[in-house]
Each structure stands twice: as structure tokens, then as C-alpha cells.
Amino acid sequence: MPRKHQVYTLVDLALYSIGEFVIVFGKYLTKYIYMISKTNPTYGHTKLQSMLEFMKHLLSYNVPQHLYDKMFRTVLTAVVNLIKETKGTYNDYALTTTFLSEMTVALHLTEVVIDTHLKKIEFSSWPKIMRHILYTKLPDMIGLEVLDLGSGSTGWRTSDIEKIIINGVTAMPNLICFILCFDCTDNIIAALTQNCKKLRKLDVTASRSVTERSVQPLLSCKYLKQIKLYKTSMTISGYANLFTKHLNIEDIGRCDEFGYVLEHIHEKDITTSFYIRIFESRNFNMEHLYLLIDMCPYITSLCILCDDGIMDFTILTALNYLKELKLLSCDFYIHGIKTLLEIKGTTIRSLHLEHVDGIDLNALISIT
């Protein structure tokens, strides 16, 4: 059990001090640039960029690489607090030019931690007002391994940010994980597959501009193991083509069309077993379950919503590698969950039952 009051490590204290140091630097820079810009705005902008570059090099050369991501988060958290503080100073009596100058400098402080040493960034962790700076600096993050752009513009400005993202990922040869929901396109995936050969995880959920045209480029990513295409414009034949030709894919996340994909593949008389281990579906029937057992024998994690077409889950006992099971909207006894647990209970490590009828004392005893 941890102590009630943990003592901060020297590393944590040092990183916190770096954040405070950057803020002190920013406050000094605000006044300095404001005074210069009064008489010579062009020189003021040039001086701002040179001093930001100085601070960037200072941090890059003095912070160990294995601590750079921690330092990045610490400094940006401090910058967020400075932005909030600056916003709080604005009132009806303050000069608009002064306020805008202070906000400009505060926002540009984001740039001082954008460096080749950065390995991971999650855009959703930072306010929208800072994300524009981060987007423009994507080409400078050449050492990035995990790029999580979150929901992007949630589909409102897909074409606007497409070019920015393509310019960024083109300079990221070490990228292994890319996440962009709603705003991903076939062109972005093409750029990823051409320049990020180490890519292992791809999540483009709800990106309607992703179609089966992306299948061929994705096949060139030999290390790709996790791909999430839920609510994209991928067709059944596109899925089938991807899964039959890219046998390294293990995790497909939620895929409501997967049952029909298996049907499509079965109709083509393809007998290959797939190495898919993790998937979730809200649209599965009994025939799909039989196909799943036959074509995906290595399933370890399964989530299924029971519909009128599924009568008995005991068929899942044939999945020898099943470790995690999540069942939704079914009956503990009628759908054979009790029998399933009696046979597979010792090998299932995680069991999630949601909206399951028939849970009584005997059911709880069976589960335990």
C-alpha cells in the first residue's frame, strides 16, 4: 500500500522546475517582444522566433532523451496554465493589442518542446487553442512513434487538415501508431503506408473518407497488427481482400460487418485460417459464429451482442485460445452461458456480462 504522502522524486522536481522556468521565460519574453513590436513589428516577430529557437535548443541539449516525453507534458501543462492566467487578465479596460501580444507569446511557447526527441503526442490532451501550433509543427516531430490526433475536427474540416497531416507523417519514418477519427482519408493512409513502414496500429474510426482504395496501400505495411475501420466507407469486399491478404492483422476492434465478411470469404471457397485475435461485433448471427469458429480459431478476446439469430453460445467452447469474453443482451441459461462457463470457465480470465437476464444465485455460483 503506498504511503499517504508520497515524496516527489528528484526527476519530478526537476521537470516541474523546467516548466516553471519556461513560464518565467515566457513572461519576460511577452514584455520584451511587446516593447519591440511597438516600433518595429517585423523585428519583433523575428526576435520572438529566435528566442523561442534558443529555448528549444536549450531544452533539447540538456534534457535526457528518455525524459523528453515527460518534460514535454510538464512544460505544456505549465503553458496551459499560463494561457488561462493570461485570459483571466483581460477585461473591458485592458488594451486589446497588449492582450493579443501576450496570448501570441503564450501560445508560441508550445514550440519550445517540439523536437526530434519527442516519441508520443496526444492532441486531445491539450486545448484546441494550442492544437493549431501542434499541427503546424508536425513535420518537426521526425522521431515520433505514437501520433494520436484524436477526433481531429470531428469531420468538419477534413479537406483542410489533410495536407497538414500528410506533410507531417511524411517526415515520421519511426511511426508505429497512428490515430485519427472522423478526418482520415485514403490520401492520408497512402502517405502513411509509403513513409511509415514500421506502422503497427491504425485507428481511423468514423472516417467516412476511408474507402476500399486504402486496402492495397495497407497491404504494404507488413508489421500492421491492429486496425480499426469501424464506421468508415470500407466495403465488405474491401474487408475480405484486406483480411485474406494481410495475415498479420490480429486486432480489428469493432467491426459489425465482420460476419458478412466471413460469409463473403466462405463463398469464394477460401480455406485460409486468419490470425485475428481480438474483435467486437453488434451484428452477428448463428451462421456467423460457425464461420468464426472455423476461420478464426485463434480468437482470444471476443465481444458479441446477442440478437434473435443466436440461440446457443456453447459453440464458443471450440475457441481454444479464448481468454476474454464480453456478452451483451442475452439470457444466462437460455443462451447456454452456464454450460459455456462449465466447460471453458478455467481458461477465461475476463468475463463481462451486460444486460444479461437470468442472473440469480445459482448463476453467480457458476461464474465464481
How do the helices and strands line up, and which of them pair or pack?
Elements: H1 10-39, H2 41-62, H3 68-88, H4 96-108, E1 120-122, H5 128-136, E2 146-148, H6 158-169, E3 177-179, H7 186-195, E4 201-203, H8 215-219, E5 226-228, H9 236-245, E6 251-254, H10 258-267, E7 278-281, H11 286-295, E8 301-305, E9 324-328, H12 337-344, E10 350-354, H13 361-367
Parallel strand pairs: 1-2, 2-3, 3-4, 4-5, 6-7, 7-8, 8-9, 9-10
Helix pairs in contact: 1-2, 1-3, 1-4, 3-4, 6-7, 9-10, 10-11
Keywords summarizing the entry:
368 residues, alpha/beta, Leucine-rich repeat, LRR (right-handed beta-alpha superhelix), 5-stranded parallel β-sheet, 13 helices, 10% strand, LRR_dom_sf, transmembrane, transmembrane helix, membrane
Domain count: the total is: 3
Helix % is 40-55%
Q: Structural class, please?
A: alpha/beta
Shape: elongated
Termini separation: 27 Å
Radius of gyration: 26 Å
Report low-confidence residues grouped into runs of 5 or more: none
Oligomer: single chain
The number of helices is 13
